[in-house]
UniProtKB/TrEMBL annotation, chains A, B:
Biological role: Part of the phosphoribosylformylglycinamidine synthase complex involved in the purines biosynthetic pathway. Catalyzes the ATP-dependent conversion of formylglycinamide ribonucleotide (FGAR) and glutamine to yield formylglycinamidine ribonucleotide (FGAM) and glutamate. The FGAM synthase complex is composed of three subunits. PurQ produces an ammonia molecule by converting glutamine to glutamate. PurL transfers the ammonia molecule to FGAR to form FGAM in an ATP-dependent manner.
Name of the featured protein: Phosphoribosylformylglycinamidine synthase subunit PurS
Annotated Gene3D superfamilies: Phosphoribosylformylglycinamidine synthase subunit PurS
Pfam entry (one): PurS
Catalytic activity: N(2)-formyl-N(1)-(5-phospho-beta-D-ribosyl)glycinamide + L-glutamine + ATP + H2O = 2-formamido-N(1)-(5-O-phospho-beta-D-ribosyl)acetamidine + L-glutamate + ADP + phosphate + H(+)
Organism: Terrilactibacillus tamarindi
EC number: 6.3.5.3
Major localization class: cytoplasm
Biological processes annotated in GO: 'de novo' IMP biosynthetic process
């Protein structure tokens, strides 16, 4: 069993209204030195190991976890975890 | 200017219905070797450097970004980015 961490972020060119709202709230709370906020997703998977694990993870991300029109993703595979 | 990456995850003991729904969808798509899915948030901040940067980041997370009753967070500060 492998643990996989997937990080999904909006592409640079895509507006992030949620991040803007958080930034404005932080400014209202007097944290005026926060210049930019971008909000993405962080997904942890536990997945049984297979020969084509990386290919499979990319399929999962492309088909289900990320919207590749507006989002980028990257992932890390951690060593064996106890099942 | 520092770039800060914040990872927010649900505590182990907290149910994750969104993750469960994703897991079931993945099983329906025949990815049956995915045993667990947990969904969290990934936030990128750009923040002007200050003497008490770490203290400030923890305040931001505690007050605004994370709900510490049900969520854990960790963060990484990256080196200077060009503003």
């Amino acid at each position: 069993m492998k643990k996989v961490k997937v990080f999904i972020t909006l592409k640079e060119s895509v507006l992030d209204p949620q991040g803007q709202a958080v930034k404005e709230s932080l400014h209202n709370m007097d944290y005026k030195n926060v210049n930019d906020v971008r909000i993405g997703k962080y997904i942890e998977l536990e997945i049984e190991d297979s020969a084509n694990l990386h290919q499979q993870i990319e399929e999962l991300c492309d088909k289900m976890l990320a919207n590749t029109v507006i989002e980028n993703y990257r992932y890390e595979v951690l060593e064996e975890v106890q099942s």
